[in-house]
TrEMBL record:
Species whose genome carries this gene: [Actinomadura] parvosata subsp. kistnae
Pfam families: HMA
Transmembrane helix in keyword set: no
NCBIfam families: copper ion binding protein (TIGR00003)
Top-level division of the source organism's lineage: Bacteria
Protein name: Regulator
Any GO MF annotation of the entry: copper ion binding
Keywords, sorted A to Z: Copper, Metal-binding
Translocase listed as a keyword: no
PROSITE patterns for this protein: HMA_1, HMA_2
One BP annotation, GO: copper ion transport
Length: 88
């Protein structure tokens, strides 16, 4: 499973979240989409990596702007790590 997080600009309400979720969810290979309105983060789950250009096109179709991919520390399945980088 692959998880990628992107920064989206312009979302201001629940309708924005729904529009982005719906359009990104249509991209081939995407199995899940989570949108955090407060931060503008869109997390995409897929079985294999999805081309960022396809995510960008979906976000634009929804009426917003993709600002880029957010690089997070990789999570190990079953890990209780919070991703803060302070784990031992």
């Amino acid at each position: 499973m692959t998880v990628a997080t992107y920064q989206v600009e312009g979302m201001t309400c629940g309708h924005c979240v729904s529009a982005v979720t719906q359009e990104v969810g249509k991209v081939a290979g995407v199995s899940g989409v989570e949108v955090d309105l407060a931060s503008g983060a869109v997390t995409v789950t897929s079985a294999a990596p999805v081309d960022a250009a396809l995510i960008d096109a979906a976000v634009v179709e929804a009426g917003y702007e993709l600002r880029g991919k957010v690089d997070l520390l990789p999570q190990v399945s079953g890990s209780s790590c919070c991703g803060s980088g302070g784990c031992h």
